[in-house]
């Protein structure tokens, strides 16, 4: 069976955004697969209408989430990023395909569906590519986390606010250390802003209620209505991030 070149497309369903490889083939039906490295592939007959593909993906959404969750939970340890063109990286809830190009200057650019790394080294120097990308994510999360914290803290009337810090944690997105400090997981930069907001508000609620009791959740609902949906969204995203 012959197949033509694949091209990257974007599928938006509710608050979720997915990038997938569209592969036209000599076939009659549509097919959907998810690879262990979290790449989504859609095989379709030649000249398939975009509307038909979108309806197909909407019908397959629940199955797609289950597959992403499975590979994220059970196989993420076996797969490590190689920092080469074609790999996928998430930024603020959107999936971007990495593209590494040699250039006269080191720079990272965020384009529609593409995370472009311009490097003065060889494109095969994945260690240097990783260094550039790690630095870019660090700069982004420092700004984004600070901005979201400034917005979310306005929902509270505390006389004194804790400082914001970052730290890798195995099973937590955030942690309330004391009235002087709360901690966010650096990898929150990969999820959407509403999920980041939820984690910040959750930890700020611990300023008043230390334990996860009825009073705490009532207070959380007051400060961040419909937080349950954001928690569920975060857990799905975390399956292939944490």
Any overview of this molecule?
The protein is of the alpha/beta class and 242 residues long. The protein has 3 domains: 7-74, no CATH class; 88-136, no CATH class; 144-238, Metalloproteases ("zincins"), catalytic domain (Zincin-like). 36% of the residues lie in helices and 26% in strands. The protein has helices spanning 50-59, 61-74, 126-152, 193-205, 214-223, 227-238, and strands at 7-13, 16-25, 31-34, 40-45, 88-91, 94-102, 107-111, 114-119, 163-166, 174-178, 181-184. The strands form 3 sheets. A 4-stranded mixed β-sheet has the order 1-2-4-3, covered by helices on one side. The chain has a 4-stranded mixed β-sheet with strand order 5-6-8-7, with helices on one face. A hairpin with a 2-residue loop joins strand 7 and strand 8. It is globular. The model has no long low-confidence stretch (mean pLDDT 88).
